[in-house]
Design a protein that fits this description.
- The chain has a domain of about 30 residues.
- By secondary structure, it is mainly α.
- About 80% of the residues lie in helices and about 0% in strands.
- It is built from 2 helices and no strands.
Length: about 80
Amino acid sequence: MSQPKSPKKKDAFKNAAVLTGIAFEMGIIIYLSVQGGKWLDDHYQNEKNIFTVIATLLGVAISIWVVLQQLKRIKY
């Protein structure tokens, strides 16, 4: 007979799935912020790409904040 899975294994699998989701969220947030910055630079005909730089830094900061908020919810 098979033994029931222990709660620790279920929590470990759930935490791994959450961490994988966090990586995708970070990538999506940063990608969208870069695309938004490029669009602003094109729209306002800015040659120095300042909007792209600002939006990228803002996207990285937001993604780090999101990661920290989600890491608080993970049970060890």
